[in-house]
Amino acid sequence: MRKDFAWRLGAALLGVFFFAVYWWNAWHYNVWSSYDGGGHIDYIFDLAAGQGLPRPKSNYLAWHEPAYYAANAVLVRVLQPLGLSREALYKILQLESAVFAWAIAAAAGVLAWQTTRRRSLAFFVAVFTGSLFVVSASGRYITNETLFQALALWWLAWFMQWRMWDTSAWSARRWSALALGLSAILWVKLSGFILLAALLIFLGIIAWRERQWRPLFVGAAVAGCVLLSYVPWMIHKQRLYGQALTINNYEVAVRPGQGAGLPARFFLTWDTEIWQHPFWTAGRGSFWSLLTASALGDYDNIFQNYAVHGRQVNFVTANGRTMAVQTAALTLALYWWSVPLLAYLAAGFLVSFWRLLRGQLSAAASFLLVTAAGFLTALIYNVYRYPYLERGTLKAIFIVSFFPLAAILAGASLPPAGERPHRRLRFIAVLVYFIFWLGFSLSIVILPAL
Predict the structure, then answer these.
(1) Are 62 and 54 in contact (CB under 8 A)?
(2) % of residues, the chain, pLDDT over 70
(3) Percent of the chain having pLDDT more than 90?
(4) How many whole angstroms separate alpha carbon 194 and alpha carbon 367?
(5) Interval 59-90: pLDDT, tens
(6) Containing domain of residue 393, as a range?
(7) Number of neighbours of residue 5 by Cβ within 10 angstroms
């Protein structure tokens, strides 16, 4: 009983801490320093002004699904009669993003617990996710990405809570609810198709393992309902751009007919330059170095508090923006200190695949593996199809959900650090290592006060 109380108290304190960190960051961050040049903001405020859905000439994000923007437009309309300034409304929307980022970390911990029933792993996954720079960065500005990632992880937690990896738990009511959830997620962001594809592959695995046709019929029914719900937006995109079956209408319109331009080695090698200079434009020779750099730190030097850094000794990055020298040094230290953690996550991912092929991976973990692989594959395809690194087609923020899923899979597939007495020394060593990692990561996650 006391042990249960201690775990719950620890989870509550952890939740309060990250909630405070994310709100602090959103409060002190200037939203106009972020990605997309205000496109997300214009989308919301144009809807709130009654101008309807944006056109490609007025907003290059016109192809983005409208649910996030429409919901926030309603919020803006509700708040405007209170006499709030436009800047105050921006800040409220930023604080909303901070809540969504917090929901990502919370969902990661819940999902780890539901998948493995190991409190220590759930605690580790929640702390790791909450302390990861890309998660905190997603909660600083106004974007549909943060809401999508939070909904994706909570949809997975919902799936696990109902034990839908077990055919004996299936019911028409549950599958209808999950299909409705997927449809809603898809109207927030096109990446919802990753979850749908992962679900269909997983149901195929279940059908093969159990030699049943039922999972295939269920998959076809869910896919039909979800796709049917998305048809109106496909029609809208067809009218706007002349084509609906593309993942980035803007890039296709800007560069019609252009194919992939990155060599195969870009996806197969590691650019060691990132270990000396973890900021744009270093590390551009490898997909994996860029992904790692944008996950662990502020690779693009976008999410700093420049008003404060302007009063300090500055380090200038290739995009012309400044960064405090101390922040740059801590970022480099974090990268080097993260090598064992990255090796752990990669090993867990590979071992999970091996266990899946041998039929040794649990059904629950198998679904998470397929989903994580789906996120990673989607980003690889996006970069291959649109090889415009300078335009930000390779960002870890696009697949934030991948990182907690990888942590869960590593914990589920690799031997635990300290469950027996003779493992105590190793457990202490791992704990000390992780505490130092937290120190480095949080030192660049938490913004200085204005």
Answers:
(1) yes
(2) 94
(3) 72
(4) 12
(5) 989 999 999 999 999 999 999 999 999 999 99
(6) 2-445
(7) 9
pTM score, whole prediction: 0.94
- The sign of the torsion formed by the CA atoms of 111, 114, 115, 117 equals positive
When divided into structural domains, the chain yields a total of: 1
Is 257 a residue whose pLDDT tops 60?
no
Per the listing, tokens 């990502």 go with 104
pLDDT at site 138: 96
Structural domain includes residue 308:
yes
What pLDDT does residue 110 have?
A: 96
Distance CA 298, CA 309 (A): 14
- Does residue 125 lie in a domain region? yes
Closest CA to 283 of 301, 297, 263, 266: 266
Structure tokens, 209: 């393992």
Is residue 450 in some structural domain?
A: no
Q: What is the SS3 string spanning the chain?
A: CHHHHHHHHHHHHHHHHHHHHHHHHHHHCCHHHCHHHHHHHHHHHHHHCCCCCCCCCCCCCCCCCCHHHHHHHHHHHHHHHHCCCHHHHHHHHHHHHHHHHHHHHHHHHHHHHHHHCCHHHHHHHHHHHHHCHHHHHHCCCCCHHHHHHHHHHHHHHHHHHCCCCCHHHCCHHHHHHHHHHHHHHHHHCCCHHHHHHHHHHHHHHHHHHHCCCHHHHHHHHHHHHHHHHHHHHHHHHHHHHCCCCCCCHHHHHHCCCCCCCCCHHHHCCCCHHHHCCCCCCCCCCCHHHHHHHHHHCCCCCCCCCHHHHCCCCEEECCCCCEEEHHHHHHHHHHHHHCHHHHHHHHHHHHHHHHHHHCCCCCHHHHHHHHHHHHHHHHHHHHHHHCCCHHHCCCCHHHHCCHHHHHHHHHHHHCCCCCCCHHHHHHHHHHHHHHHHHHHHHHHHHCCCCC
Domain for residue 205, yes or no? yes
**Contact predicate 236/56, CB 8 Å:** no
Q: C-alpha angle 382/137/93, rounded to 5°?
A: 105
Q: How far apart are alpha carbons 161 and 30 in whole angstroms?
A: 38
* Mean pLDDT (the chain, rounded): 91
CB count within 10 Å of CB 429 equals 12
pLDDT higher than threshold 90 for residue 153: yes
Q: Identify whether the C-beta of residue 423 lies closer than 8 Å to the C-beta of residue 114.
A: no
The answer to whether the beta carbons of residues 94 and 31 sit under 8 Å apart is yes
Tens digit of each residue's pLDDT (9 = 90 or more) over 168-199: 999 999 999 999 999 999 999 999 999 999 99
User: C-alpha distances in angstroms, 127 versus 45, 106, 111, 337, 407?
Assistant: 35, 9, 13, 17, 11
